[in-house]
Amino acid sequence: MPGNAAMAGDSFLQPPGTAALAAPALAALRLLEASGHEAWVVGGAARDLLRGRQPKDWDIATSAAPEQMRAAFAGLRVLDIGLRHGTLTVIIQGCPIETSVYRRASDATAGGDGGATIADDLAARDFTLNAIAFHPERGFLDVAGGRADLAAGLIRAVGDPAARFQEDALRVLRALRFAAVFAYRLEPETAAAMRRLGPNLSRVAPERIYRELVLLLCGREAAEILRRWPDVVGVFLPEMLPMVGFNQYNPHHIFDVYEHTLRALEVTPPEPAPRLAIFFHDIGKPASFTRDAAGIGHFYGHAALSADIAFRVQKRMSAPRVLREKVCDLIHWHDATISCSRKAVRRWLARLGPEMFRLLLQIKRADNLAHHPNSVRTGEFDKLAQLADEILAKEPSLFAGGGSGRRGRRNRRSNGAHQRRQHVSQQRHHAGGPQDANADGGSAPGSL
Asked: Alpha carbon of 102 to those of 62, 120, 137, 383: distances in Å?
């Protein structure tokens, strides 16, 4: 065996063979081994292989130092991303393979000099389900009980939970992300350390937070995790906290603003744009809240205010521009009136384009499903979708490349500050006035 052998007593599991590895990952392993170094597939790729899933991303841990990796990958494109942490990314057949030198918990850059082993590297990882390595001939290597925790659906920190979270506070959010994506439970000691050390997330770079937040929001148990951990999420997203427990005082709502948001999230397709949009869609409600003479709550201008808050939050987190704009456009229009008529749908298709129009209907449907049962009108959204399909079938070229919400972005940028000021005036003038169709300060879907 080339390089550093695993420690005696480590747990090896039955190998699935080379067929389990994508050709680029196998090629990277072979190139490193041909140069006299040890190499294993690690992290999420090894975890997915153990779960019988095909990995989407490939990570390799090796005994080779970065300059030795570069020599082994001679003739291939190599990126220096993560070089200061002992990591290079090699591109093989168009597939990026992130390759890192073995690390110890005490020194993130140790290894490559014969001092660190694969066992050291696994013991330095965040959670047991990620502390697994795979080699096509040697099989799986499990030094922390990851296999048992995977079988039990448990997220457990490797070793001392507090030490792991103090090494990198982002691991607190990663744990929540894994719980949301895999629908796993958090091991009690791990969860307790997360509560205690969650405030350290304020020190994490916003762009790192954003990546984990998006993955969490797209998880199948995202709503339940957010329901249980608003205090931790609020560390890096304080704009969200006023929603928690905020009574809407409205006959169309039976949930507070935060619970309404989570109920809507549960019925939103698990893709970044719609999940982000629904998560932020009512974040401006607490700041736009008024009550009329009858005690009914209203949220005049909350859609524009929510879009503005979402824009600022995502900009702070360095969100990709295209995704950020799409999310904010959906929020901006989520409370708009769309009449169930061919003329109205055609006008909206021209304004937004087919893709954005369909996404908007998803947002409006999810939002409506989280209202009081007596206010649910999903049939109207079915009709709007049917009308859109009929129009696009008859005029497929008319809307090709059109729309995309540019008008919404222009309106938000030019009118956002004005609308934020205006809702203060509306607090004075709308109280006791005629009730809106949905009592949120917007219009009900399906009516002109």
From this structure: 6, 7, 20, 57
The amino acid occupying position 83 is L
Q: Does domain 165-234 have CATH number 2.60.40?
A: no
pLDDT of residue 408 exceeding 60, the answer is: no
Domain ranges of the chain: 11-152, 165-234, 237-429
The model's pLDDT over 317-335, given as tens digits with 9 standing for 90+, comes to 999 999 999 999 999 999 9
Type and span of the H or E element at 415: helix 406-429
| CA gap 372, 222 in Å, rounded | 22
Per-residue model confidence as pLDDT tens digits over 16-73: 555 578 999 999 999 999 999 999 999 999 999 998 889 999 999 999 999 999 999 9
- Bridge partners, residue 99, by sequence: 60, 88
**How many helices and strands (H and E) does the chain possess?**
20, 12
Give the model's pLDDT for residue 439: 45
DSSP letter at 436? P
Packing angle of the helix pair 342-352, 354-369 (nearest 10 deg)? 110
| Class of the CATH-defined domain 11-152 | alpha beta
Q: Which of 252-261, 291-300, 371-380, 427-436 has the lowest mean pLDDT?
A: 427-436
Q: What is the CATH number of domain 237-429?
A: 1.10.3210
Write out the two tokens for 23: 């050709």
Nearest CA to 44 out of 169, 182, 164, 152 is that of: 182
The residues with which 383 forms a beta bridge, in sequence order, are none
